[in-house]
Every structure is written in structure tokens, then in C-alpha cells.
Amino acid sequence: MIPNTTNNISSFQPKVLIVGTGAIGSYYGGKLAQGGAHVSAVCRSDYEKVKNHGIYVESVRGDFHFIPEKVVRSVDAYGDVPDYILVATKVVPEADVPKLIKAAIGEQTAILLIQNGIEIEEPVASAFPNNEVISGLAFIAVSRVGPGHIRHQDYGRLTLGCYPSGVSEKAENLSKLFEKAGIPCDVTPDVVTARWKKLVWNASFNPVSVLGGGVDTQTMLNGKESSRLLRKVMEEICLVAKAVGHELPHDIVQTNIDGTLVMKPYKTSMLLDFEAGRPMEVEAILGNAVRAAERSQVAVPHLESLYALLKMVDQKNRRTF
Amino acid sequence: MIPNTTNNISSFQPKVLIVGTGAIGSYYGGKLAQGGAHVSAVCRSDYEKVKNHGIYVESVRGDFHFIPEKVVRSVDAYGDVPDYILVATKVVPEADVPKLIKAAIGEQTAILLIQNGIEIEEPVASAFPNNEVISGLAFIAVSRVGPGHIRHQDYGRLTLGCYPSGVSEKAENLSKLFEKAGIPCDVTPDVVTARWKKLVWNASFNPVSVLGGGVDTQTMLNGKESSRLLRKVMEEICLVAKAVGHELPHDIVQTNIDGTLVMKPYKTSMLLDFEAGRPMEVEAILGNAVRAAERSQVAVPHLESLYALLKMVDQKNRRTF
């Protein structure tokens, strides 16, 4: 039974450790600190800057300064057991999440993954079978503009849920803390379906923006062939999602197209990663979807074309930069 | 009835006008001149250099110097009626072949197209319904390294045939002239099928090399997903070819893979065009195949993915350079 925690949220001050203190980790970690949590951060490249000056968050909702309670170079230097580990690393082969977080996982530690892609929770859930894994999706435009400097451009909504399904007290409490800090935060009993929903956009616009030579959302939507390709990829994602038990709303393709058409032209996050020579989330966004399709014997020819091409582009991009 | 022309080939000295005096046009034009033809050339960017110094052809089969009889800036300056117009322009929207060659077309002029792609003959055949159109395919590695300077790296074989089908005296004579100059030259009564055969390689390796981020043949073949993509595209080309009446050999996909596997890794011609900022033959190689598939109601999801992406890349590439 989940107790009603609404009344005691002001006294809910959990210990939170951020792993992956980039744009996403810094923004949501900073918000949790504003909500009253004791937030510490694992920083690698930006360690000196953040240790001495904290993280400056330029935000459309008002700038703020986030000073983590502890700033450490790796999880084992934290010296405490957090109530939540907030994992916001990119989902790339280089980032071995179970290995990264192992040293700080206590009996009561819930692991919150705010990351892209599908089927990304399983390796963490397997490595820590007795810990709660909370899967989170961020709908936000935020980027790191320099060491200890984050720019929040738009949005910010979160969706959370327990993996593989359900809702827990820890998830509810965390959601309320986010809401208290001004972050709209839904809790869903079916977060895996929410991930497939988000993938409809991510698996289409992201790869096409890179493979199309670095094109923005409107350029993709304006081309007869390219907008058709976006639709075909989205339809394939719906077929796979349904085959693995997560049927998506019947109008989700049109909703994604229409929703993007009314936005200003912009570069996808994957394109920004590509242009900066950073690894792209090829496996989390495309590879896992193609493999789910294979397991379910669903034909995804457009998706597998994008996957084959993007995999080569990513390998080459990493070597070049 | 086609007369036996074998015995009089030494006295066969036709007037040939080259339109598109790039690598292909210069090499084959130079060879026809060696065979005894009176070869003139339309040059635009390299006019001064070629007018004064001719074209130097570095070749694995022996360097040679090709001095066209006339060098003109446009077809209407030729002042004669050629027996053959050798068209070797890239097949891109900028090059309007009927318009380019109109001024030199006489009653007896045969139009030889040595170009890539499929369904490229129709606009020319429609514009000049009373002239013979000879369709030609070059299997050659040759590139322009500077003004009036061509480098022939390997191969050189030609396949010719009348469009839409058949063999003519003019085609036979031309073939013998090429053979006399050392160019293996097959004459086929079904050149359209020969084009579809060549497209199996061109529609797969060429676009994937560009869209994969600039990869060579072995990189494409080595990747599990990318080699699968190559095969899928090839299989789709076979399906479309069959649907439009040009069934290809059952082992053509494997033959293309095996043939490329034993070659040294190399960059495709489309990748070289892309890297140099030149327009790519997107429509001749992919667009026409996708449209043939649509007319025949054949599903070509891999091919249409490549087409949609490459079209965007080409548009962007032209703007950038």
C-alpha cells in the first residue's frame, strides 16, 4: 500500500547522487536541490569548476545557481549511501552504468534513470535485482554550454515509473519533490510504453537529421520523400511496440508530425552530438528497436536502413573528432 | 540487314563530337581519336587549357595525349554535323542533354550516351525521335585530376546497344572502332537490362558510401548491418527490374558482393563527387529506380530510405560548396 505522502513532502529531504552531471543531470539535480533534497554530484571533466563554483543554470524559467553538497570525481568518493542515484549519462557503450554506480548502491537506494531509448533499464535491473529502478523520460531542451554552465531553453516535463511496471512510494515521493521545485512530473504505471511513445519521435527525426546531411526539423518535414521516410519509421516503431506488448495510440504518428510542424525549425539532439563529435545514442534509440523487431519477427526495413547507416556514421565520427 | 563491317573498319573515320569532356568523355573520345575518328570536344571550364594543350591522359595502359580536332565552348560553335555525338555529362538536373546537343544534331547523327543510371535515354529519344540513340555503359575507374588532365586508374570496358533495344550498323561500327583502339566493347541487343544490371552495384554501394559517413567498399562489406543493407537494396533492384521486364541473373547479388570483396577498398564515384562538392547522380541512380518501383507497385523500402536521405544530402552539399 502506498501511503499518502502529500502532506509530508516539505519534510522529504532525500540524499541524491547525480551520475552523469551533464545538461540533464545538472538541471534536474539542481531542481531537486531547490526542492529541498541533499544533492551531490559526480563530475569528471568539469570537476574543478563545479567543485569551486557550482553549476550555473541559465533558464527560460529563471536562472539559478546549483551548488551540490559534495562534488566528487567518482561514485566511490561519495562516502555515503544515497536514497536516489540519478543516472543521466548518455546511453553509449562507453558508459557502463552498473559499473559506474555500484560503489554507492545501498539497500535502500533507488536508481533513477533519466535517459533516452528503449530497453535501457534491463542491464541495471539485472545488476541490482534488490534495488528499485525508476525509469524516467525528460521532455526538455537543455544543453551544456561550458564547464559548470548549463542552458535550459525550453520545456522540462518528466515522466517517471517503476521498471518494469508499477508505481512505488519512492517514485511518488520523487515526483512530488520535482513538482514542488516546479517541474511537471507524471508518474505512470507503464513507463515502458511511455518509452516506446517517446521513441516514435526519437527514432525518426534524430537519425534522419544526421543522415540527411545535418538538416533541421522543418527541412525533413518539407521534403516529400523525407517526410514519408519519417512516417514509415514511426509506423514501424508502432508495429514493434505493439508486438512487444506496448500498443501505442492509433494517432501517434500524426500527432508527432503535427506537433513538430508547429515548432520552430530546430536541430535534433543527435545532430548536435554528431556535430560536436560526441558519440550518438545509436544502440539505445535504433539498435534496441531493431533487435526487438527481430525477436518479434516484425519487418522494419526503414528503421534497419537508418540503423545500418547511422552505426557507420557514428563509428567514423568518433574516430574523426 | 546489318552489313559486315569488319573488313572496312580501318577506313571508318567518323566525325565525333564529345559533349561533357570530363574524365569519361576525354578518355573514350581520346580512344576514338586513336582509332582514327575525327574527334572534337565541347569544353566549358577547361576550354583554354584544352584548346591550347589538348588533354593529357595518364593511363595504366600507357599515357597518351588527346588533341581534339576542334575545341569549342558550346555545341553551336562546332560548325559541322557529327556522325556521333558522345554525351558523357553527369546525369543531373543541371545538364539538360537535349538542349545541350540540339544545335549539332543532323539527320544522320547517332547519339551515344555514356552515362550512369536507368531510364536516362527517354528524354533524349523523345527530343530526337528520328535519330538513333545508342546507350552505353562504362566500366572504368577514371577521374579528372585537373584542367585537361585525366587519370585512368583501371578497367575500361564498354557495353553498347541501341535504345530501347536492338543493334544497328552504327552501333556495330562504333564498337569495332573502340575495339580497334584497345577498348573491349560489347554490343548488346538489350542495353536496358544491362543498365539494370549495373544499377545493382550503383544503387547500393554508391549511396551507402556517402550516407555511411564517407566509407570505402570494405567498410560497408565488413559491417553486419551495412552488408545486409547492401544486399537488401540489391534485391529490391532485382525485383523492380523484373517487374519492368528486365529479369536479372538469379546470382547477381552474390556476384556483386563477391566481386567487390576481392577488390582493394576504394571510394565510390558518388563519394568522390560528394567530397568534392559536386552534384551526385541521385535521380538517375535512385530516383528513377524508386519511380519505376512505384509504377510497378513493387515495395522498395530500403531503396526509398536511401533516396530520401541522399536527396537531402545532395541539396545541402550543393549549397555548402
Automatic annotation (TrEMBL), chains A, B:
Recorded metabolic or biological pathway in which this protein acts: Cofactor biosynthesis; (R)-pantothenate biosynthesis; (R)-pantoate from 3-methyl-2-oxobutanoate: step 2/2
Source domain of life: Bacteria
Entry keyword annotation includes NADP: yes
Ranges that cross the membrane: none
Domain Ketopantoate reductase C-terminal: 190-313
Keyword set includes Ligase: no
EC numbers for this chain: 1.1.1.169
Entry keyword set: NADP, Oxidoreductase, Pantothenate biosynthesis
GO MF annotation list: 2-dehydropantoate 2-reductase activity
Enzyme class: oxidoreductase
InterPro entries assigned: 6-PGluconate_DH-like_C_sf, 6PGD_dom2, ApbA, KPA_reductase, KPR-Related, KPR_N, NAD(P)-bd_dom_sf
SUPFAM superfamilies: 6-phosphogluconate dehydrogenase C-terminal domain-like, NAD(P)-binding Rossmann-fold domains
Any one annotated GO CC term: cytoplasm
Summary of the function given for this chain in its UniProt record: Catalyzes the NADPH-dependent reduction of ketopantoate into pantoic acid.
Listed name of the protein: 2-dehydropantoate 2-reductase
Originating species: Desulforhabdus amnigena
